[in-house]
Amino acid sequence: MAIQKKSVFLFYLASIILIAVSYAAHNPEIISPAEGVTFTFSDFLLLFAMKTLLFVLLILTSFLGLPFLLLPLIIWQIGAAGAESPLTPLSYYSMSFIPIALNLFVMFIVFMFTIYHVRMLFRFLKDRSEKENLKGLYISFSKRYLPIIFILIFISSIAEALVANMQYL
User: Fold this and answer.
1) Are the C-beta atoms of 121 and 63 separated by less than 8 Å?
2) pLDDT per residue as tens digits for the range 34-69
3) pTM for the complete prediction?
4) SS3 state of residue 139
5) How many beta carbons lie within 10 A of that of residue 67, not counting itself?
6) Distance between CA 76 and CA 104 in Å, rounded?
């Protein structure tokens, strides 16, 4: 599974456009910032576990093409979260840049895996001799990309918890 710079650029460009449209289309409720809200270690662990579970489920359902439907919804929620924040868009997105960029990169990896996975499955259904290539895709993804995904989700969760704590200072 080779990642090309052009694919990364196009994915990020489409994501930024989707986030901007989501932000503009979202009509937030007026919420006053909660006083003294802080992310604790257990909140960080819950965030990490939820993100990990979400991406593992996306990877496991990639043979159905489900990430093609769910990834745009997840990206849409990034824009909606910015609209719901009590901060200005510039403040919110500059503070959240690292967690958003890391999450988008993980989504890109899942997106590319889904493309390769669906393509390999169609080849396998046509010609059963493609079984070794499909097995090779699973092995290479498990060895190369799953550790990267878990590390990026971990770093993203830490950054997101820090950003959440900084929002109400």
Assistant:
1) yes
2) 555 667 778 888 888 999 999 999 998 988 889 999
3) 0.85
4) helix
5) 24
6) 12
